[in-house]
Automatic annotation (TrEMBL):
Protein name: UEVLD enzyme
Domain annotation UEV: ranges: 1-142
Catalytic reaction equation(s): (S)-lactate + NAD(+) = pyruvate + NADH + H(+)
MF terms in GO: L-lactate dehydrogenase (NAD+) activity
GO biological process annotation, one example: protein transport
Function (record text): Interconverts simultaneously and stereospecifically pyruvate and lactate with concomitant interconversion of NADH and NAD(+).
Pfam family name, one: Ldh_1_C
InterPro entries: L-lactate/malate_DH, Lactate/malate_DH_C, Lactate/malate_DH_N, Lactate_DH/Glyco_Ohase_4_C, NAD(P)-bd_dom_sf, UBQ-conjugating_enzyme/RWD, UEV_N
Domain of life: Eukaryota
Length: 477
């Protein structure tokens, strides 16, 4: 049988079971073609895997379509599900939705709940057809659109062929490669996204700011105004390829679905990020991801997992704004500049934030040390009272984000309270992101600044870590 040839050079553990199942596929879908190719995983490892391509029939809005797909069969099949992609032609574009991301990667409940022998490839294709009939995953391009997006489609073709470790493209002019310049992409064109783009442009740290508008249809509201009153070095785009070679990518997008519970809201954001992060990380493989989407601790964790970036290059905006405000109050309103430089708001955003210190200038004598601590705490409590009620408006968060990007782009090595992987800090053993004082440079977090030992602070951080971890465990990535 034809399949036997493909398996000769591979290390499939359940060869006979896999061959038998694939025979069943060809009976139902005789148009599929098979080959052996090298697949590159996100961690850079490679394997020669059996893969097959073909079309599946889909009826949508009274019309019939043949949707091209590409499936990779893992060497542990049938006990592991295939890796599935769309394979659009040059005249097709991917319609990103809850079952398909910008790379064309297909996500289905059938894949998440795969369990042999109940789960089969023919059953998978059957669900694929059913889901595609609810939400068509591809649409036709006009000839002009096809030409404009040909480069994007070529990237997708390489991704579906398993070439996921491509280098980012270089800008070429006159046969010479241009020197790298500071480019920032802001993903999401809501109030926060627009505020970020304007604040970053005003800060002057970036040569170019791209505002990636993920909304459907023509530009609306603020993005339309940005187009009307064009700003130098600010570009509005709906195409992920416009983000290529960004030094920093700011994520402000939040799902506006009809979720009923808090967990549903977060899951909706996770589903949204499944379509964003792979595309962003593909076009800007060396970027720093700066997450502002909510809840920031969880979405920073999600971004880290989906991007497979090192932890240093995935950062949440965390308590940076609260810390800057707190230090400003200490210095300018309470005239306690010496305290301000060591005072930090850490932990979670919101009501569970924690006040901490990064060094101790207290006196060695125990009585005087206690008095100094009490004095410090009184001033800090007054500052916290000033801080209450000062909400985080879009423009104020935008200014904070502009300050973070400035520190990264200019390699300032300034300390900021940002969400970073907290595992190993304060006896936290789970993979959670919490706001902690970190030195930022061109590659993101360079070093975490050591906090003053305080059992109460550690207890609060551990409590936050526990609740965040419990929430993350309920999410489907």
């Amino acid at each position: 049988f034809l399949f036997s040839h493909f398996f000769l050079s591979s290390q499939y553990k359940f060869r006979d079971l896999t061959i038998e199942e694939l025979k069943n596929v060809t009976k139902t879908y005789p148009n599929f073609t098979f080959s052996m190719n090298t697949y590159t995983f996100k961690d850079g490892s490679q394997k020669d895997l059996l893969n097959f391509s073909g079309t599946v029939p889909v009826k949508y809005a009274g019309n019939s379509y043949n949707i091209p797909i590409h499936l990779w069969i893992l060497d542990s099949h049938p006990f592991s599900p295939p890796i599935c992609f769309l394979k659009p032609t040059v005249n097709m574009a991917i319609s990103v939705g809850k079952h398909v991301d910008a790379h064309g990667r297909i996500y289905l409940p059938y894949l998440q709940n795969w369990k042999y022998p109940k789960s089969t490839i023919t059953g998978l294709i059957g669900e694929m057809i059913a889901k595609f009939e609810e939400e068509l995953p591809l649409y036709s391009l006009s000839s002009s659109d096809a030409a404009r997006q040909s480069e994007l489609l070529s990237y997708i073709a390489k991704i579906t062929a398993g070439e996921t470790d491509m280098k980012s493209k270089s800008e070429v002019s006159g046969g010479k490669t241009k020197e790298c310049f500071n480019k920032i992409t802001v993903v999401g064109a809501g109030d926060l996204g627009i505020a970020c783009a304007l604040a970053v442009a005003a800060k002057g740290a970036a040569n170019k700011v791209v505002l990636l508008d993920l909304s459907e249809g023509a530009a609306k509201g603020g993005t339309m105004d940005l187009e009307i009153f064009a700003l130098p070095n600010v570009e509005i785009s709906k195409d992920f390829s416009a983000s290529a070679d960004s030094k920093v990518v700011v994520l402000t997008a939040n799902s506006l679905g009809n979720a009923q519970t808090y967990l549903d809201v977060i899951q909706s954001n996770v589903d949204l990020f499944r379509g964003i992060i792979p595309a962003i990380s593909h076009y800007s493989q060396n970027t720093v991801l700066l997450v502002a989407s909510q809840p920031v601790e969880v979405m920073t964790y999600v971004s880290w997992k989906l991007s497979a970036f090192p932890k240093s290059r995935v950062i949440g905006i965390g308590a940076n704004l609260d810390t800057e405000r707190f230090q400003h109050i200490l210095t300018n309103l309470l005239k306690a500049e010496a305290l301000a430089k060591d005072a930090w708001i850490i932990g979670e955003q919101g009501e569970d934030k924690v006040l901490s210190w990064t060094s101790s200038n207290l006196i060695a004598n125990q009585t005087e040390e206690m008095a100094a601590r009490n004095s410090r705490e009184k001033v800090a409590n007054r500052a916290m009272e000033f801080l209450k009620g000062k909400g985080q408006r879009s423009w104020s968060v935008g200014l904070s984000i502009a300050d973070l990007t400035d520190s990264i782009l200019k390699d300032k090595r300034k300390v900021h309270s940002v969400s970073t992987l907290a595992k190993g800090c304060c006896n936290i053993n789970s993979e959670v992101f919490l706001s902690l004082p970190c030195i930022l440079g061109t590659n993101g977090v360079m070093e975490m600044v050591k906090l003053e030992e305080d059992s109460l602070v550690q207890e609060k951080l551990q409590s936050s870590a526990g609740s965040i971890h419990d929430l993350q465990q309920q999410l489907k990535l």
